[in-house]
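notes to self, project folder thing:

trying the whole complex as one job this time. last attempt i did each chain seperately and stitching them together was a nightmare. two parts in total, labels are on each line so i dont mix them up again. if this works i'll redo the older ones the same way
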Amino acid sequence: MIWKIIFLVLTVPLFGEDIYFTRSGTISFFSSTPIEDIKAINEQTTCVLDLETGDLSFRIPIRGFIFKNGLMQEHFNENYLESDTYPNASFTGSIEGWKDITLTEKLQPVSLKGTMTIHGVSKDIAESGNILMKENRVIGAATFKITVADYKIKIPKIVRDNIAKVVDVTVDLSLKKK
Amino acid sequence: MNRFLLIFTGLIISLTAQDDILEHIDEGTVSPVPVQATFKATRIVNSQSIELPRPKTLEFMILHRFGSMGNGFYDLFGMDEAAIRFDLKYGINDRISLGAGRSSLNKTYDIFTKLKILKQTSGGSSFPFSLALFSKIEISTIDQNLPMNDQLTFDIQVLAARKFNPSISVQVMPTFIHRNLVQTAEEFHDLLSFGIGGRVKVTRRVSINADTFFPLGERDESFKQSWGLGCDIETGGHVFQLMITNVQGSFESEYIENATGTFDELNLFLGFNITRVFSL
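result (full assembly):
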């Protein structure tokens, strides 16, 4: 009997899950004002999707956002997102109605619901995205908007006209099986 | 009984396994990232900081020192006079920068380079400090009759800095200066000194900075140890540095070896540096 339990303990973590993941997901954001456009790309996003439950988790290292202008990148980290104190942004949630979704090679829209944490501030969000499965990879994409003030990111008066109050965020993922 | 035990074990496993699904792929390793913004500008007060112009960025710097404050309101604490320096620096990549400048004091031109040798990193197997090499050739053109060789001064500095936390950074600077020409027989051609500087951030965009150079070896009687006390103010694309110092020249051979100011009669200098960057 005891061997059965040991067998169970050892095998459940191996067979009990259907985990897809990436460590190099792309997240970019775009801030557009009449004065200037600011863009940054992060290609170090970690994302995990549990194909059994539809649970989804993101971890986005703030230092991974690359700007064309190095000074902007420094200010983004030092003054706005304070990446020394809050090194990662995260999203933990799930895909709604997962039981009724069958992944195919065709793009299908899905709704996501969960908690987004940026700059140490957590907020419940609901956004939509697209998902498909091709060549044993789960491909996901989403675009949505983030209101900077929601996450207590303070923008000083002097650059208030240069930075948009709402920025566009684009997510592109290609997950492989663990 | 045994069956219940089996089911119970299975349940416990399935419950504990699902805390955060990110744990499924975490190996507990964090890759180190370079520490950035040890200082806000490429100067601490007078001295060079560990910072280089950013890659593909041209940095224009104005270094302005007023006259001695000793005359008080007569010339508004030195505001009527000025020693000014302009320099342009370019960051070729994140390790190599080149620059050239001109200072009104002794009509001095110079070319210089700053190389980042080691980078402080945090996270994972972190590295504790950054190291840079600064070297410079100055050409003093105030005396046109001198041969070229006698107008030259050389400067080599090793800059080692550590950002202890987001607000406190400290830098040490062993320095070697060689003057091809000295004014009197008592003066030395080769001079060694040890600089130390640092900053404390008081708000996200303002810091208090200080630096000084301790002489190593002999100096003549008139030598005074140089120091500077300043404040960095960062706006969008500029860094303003306001300071009070006991030296008027803002290039290496002057601010390290040729300080003149004393607290007696308030013979000190007010000044400012402005840094503007252009992305190319």
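what i see at first glance: Residues 34 and 53 of chain A are 44 Å apart (CA to CA).
need to look closer tmrw
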